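job 3f2a | input accepted
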Amino acid sequence: MSNFKLLIVEDDLNEVENNYKPTIARIMREKNMPMDCEYASSLEEALSKLNGSFDAAIVDLKLDNSDEEKGNDVIRKVHSSYRIPLAVLTGTPQEVDSDLNACVQVFTRDQGMDAALEYLLGIYSTGLTKIMGGRGKIEEAMGKIFWDNIIPHINSWVDHAKVAETENGLLRHVVSHIQELLEGESHAFPQEMYVSPPMATELRTGSILKYKDGNGFSIVLSPPCDLVLRADGKCKTDRILICGIEKFDVVKESALVGITNLSKKKSRIEKVLKNNETDYYHWLPETSFFQGGVVNFRWVNAFPKEKIDSEFDAPSAQVASPFIKDLLARFSAYYARQGQPDFDVKKIAEELA
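job 3f2a | predicted structure (353 res):
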């Protein structure tokens, strides 16, 4: 496994020698974690060293003995060209350009190198840069898919391109190969269920909508074919199907009525989470960006697009493709129930015993 690789951009060489290097050496010992650190003391040197091999960067705003905050240029370059987390360690935290605030975590000199490193190592521990960084699994997977799956069949794509635009189709083809690599993985985490904010601005199957008056959430369950935008900018359908999302605490309270035993309570809650409590509930997990809840298939409505635009905010999250299929299947199954006349199964069982 490769070492944690860190770029440090700091023009005060005394600070580097007397603070940064001793702190890094101590943390390496304490965490038994090898690190490879590279240093840049100017904007030009930082830009020349930047590449996709780093796992993180710590940047000072004041560089080149200038009154200008040239560290902002380093941050901007990283944000536009690479995928690594950034920490700013500076005596002038208020000087981070406002459009970059969401890209970085700012630490003052008083908070120090320890705090900045703890932040970056915490991100590294999630595996994010191993997946999305320049040395990550996505790059590795892209290389494999490019050479093993796309290039051997590229002539067929060239033929398609003679008569149609193929870029989006090729993108879908590549994404399906990446998804194939993930089949059979272990338990999912709640955040995986959603795309937030949504990648697309238009309504999609699984778009989660919040009422503008704050009175709860609903989810779009119209099939994708009905939501396709026509040349006039309108959906193919004149009614969009939505289902209400019930608060989880309300569903839990109802499910636990009459149950006092703790073990039985846990068992009943598990049934709700596994969508085994009733045919008309489908659980959506809570995350930091969505309160979660339970889709109630009985709370179904069909609204014109204009009413959805007027009563709901723009989608704040989207149920991800691997999860929306089961939700739609259960919704369809609930309304496809036919039933049949009951038999006297108790009497028949007695005869067969």
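job 3f2a | The chain has a mean pLDDT of 88.
job 3f2a | closed
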